[in-house]
């Protein structure tokens, strides 16, 4: 059975430059290992006024309030609606122009700045099965191939209690890959793939170089944003919070 051209769909691997004896995956394995998390730090404005009288302290309090109010902008709900509206016509990212990608990224960054979950790896909201609704990853989108040779839907499942992850393709290939996760901080994990399943049935041991990193930059009960170490953006929606990754 031929391998899917999308077989590394959700985590992008960091490939070793050494000439090791690890088995070489076919080029068609380039997409089930493509999802990543990357850190983004947001710094707030600071105000440093030197006058210290009582009246000035009151004035300073009023001054500091208005910039905070103006900078707050849209809340998470409004930003989520704007983000979903922006990606709806883009076929998961396959039809996105550079301008589209920049707009989606800009909205995503605003949403990341107001994420209600500051430590995603400690949250039960991360557990379950997610569906990928948008990405910039070329290895996943496979836009150089006819649509009938692209996976119609890609899923990712994570369980934080067992530190396991699973990526799954739907029609026409149904490939899968499972991985162990090692927390690097409260938002970021190292990913080491251990087993591929061709067509969801035929197991193949993953080579040692099949690894990467993943960081969760936004998380609530229905939406997750992840960024990869190759700079790709991944947006997913929760479909089954009860799903368990095989151990």
TrEMBL record:
Top-level division of the source organism's lineage: Eukaryota
Keyword Plastid carried by entry: yes
Subcellular location, principal: plastid
Location in or out of the cell: Plastid
Listed GO CC annotations: plastid
Keywords from the UniProt entry: Plastid, Transit peptide
Record InterPro entries: PAP, PAP/fibrillin_dom
Keyword check for Metal-binding: no
Residue span, Plastid lipid-associated protein/fibrillin conserved domain: 78-237
Similarity annotation: Belongs to the PAP/fibrillin family.
Protein name, UniProt field: Probable plastid-lipid-associated protein 4, chloroplastic isoform X1
Organism this protein belongs to: Herrania umbratica
Lineage, broadest ranks: Eukaryota, Viridiplantae, Streptophyta, Embryophyta, Tracheophyta
């Amino acid at each position: 059975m031929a391998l899917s051209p999308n077989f590394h769909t959700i985590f992008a691997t960091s490939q070793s430059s050494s000439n090791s004896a690890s088995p070489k995956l076919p080029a068609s394995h380039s997409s089930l290992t493509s999802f990543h998390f990357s850190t983004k730090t947001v710094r707030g404005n600071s105000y440093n006024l030197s006058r210290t009288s009582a009246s000035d302290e009151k004035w300073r309090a009023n001054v500091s309030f208005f910039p905070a109010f103006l900078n707050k902008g849209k809340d998470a709900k409004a930003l989520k609606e704007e983000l979903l509206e922006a990606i709806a016509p883009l076929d998961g990212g396959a039809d996105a122009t550079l301008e589209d990608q920049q707009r989606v990224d800009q909205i995503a960054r605003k949403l990341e700045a107001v994420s209600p979950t500051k430590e995603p790896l400690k949250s039960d909201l991360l557990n379950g099965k997610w569906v990928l609704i948008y990405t910039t990853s070329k290895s996943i989108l496979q836009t150089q191939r006819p649509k009938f040779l692209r996976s119609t839907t890609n899923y990712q499942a994570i369980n934080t209690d067992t530190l396991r992850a699973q990526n799954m393709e739907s029609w026409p290939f149904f490939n899968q890959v499972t991985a162990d996760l090692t927390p690097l901080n409260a938002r970021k994990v190292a990913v080491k793939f251990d087993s591929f399943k061709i067509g969801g049935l035929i197991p193949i041991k993953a080579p040692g170089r099949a690894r990467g990193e993943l960081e969760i930059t936004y998380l609530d009960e229905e939406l997750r944003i992840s960024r990869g170490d190759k700079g790709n953006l991944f947006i997913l929606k929760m479909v089954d919070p009860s799903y368990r990754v095989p151990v």
